[in-house]
Design a protein that fits this description.
With about 130 residues, this protein is mainly beta. It has one helix and nine strands.
């Protein structure tokens, strides 16, 4: 639990530092980056030690199959998703925190009838990882 509190504090500081319009707060539940054709996403923090993105999936949309390119953590903000980790389906719902090891084959699907949005935290930034 201490780790999660520390992570949230880091996230809040990083988001505040990255906000370009002068505001110190971004509400991730207001206007998530949904797209009609493909997964929607926006970068929240892009620094050497941390990459944070928000992804939004409408029903039936997915994050395509790929290898985790850093140490990845996902926090589901709204809805339900299925996270496929090396062929094992992990259901994740609002409030769930999922840790994913570097180089794990993965994809994320919204198989529900509701929209879903989540934060992806990568540390360090994939640009700093060995290939």
């Amino acid at each position: 639990m201490k780790f999660l509190a520390m992570l949230c504090a880091i996230m809040c500081m990083s988001i505040s530092a990255q906000t370009s319009d002068g505001d110190n707060i971004q509400n991730l539940l207001v206007a998530p980056p949904y797209s009609d054709t493909i997964m929607g996403k926006k970068t929240l923090v892009d620094q050497t030690y941390l990459l944070m993105m928000q992804v939004a999936l409408k029903p039936g949309q997915m994050v395509p199959q790929h290898m985790a390119n850093s140490h990845v953590h996902i926090i589901v903000l709204e809805g339900n998703v299925i996270i496929d980790l090396a062929g094992k389906d992990i259901p994740a719902k609002k409030g769930d925190f999922v840790a994913i090891a570097f180089k794990t084959p993965m994809n994320i699907k919204n198989m529900s009838k509701e929209k879903a949005t989540f934060v992806i935290i990568k540390s360090p930034n994939p640009s700093q990882m060995e290939k």
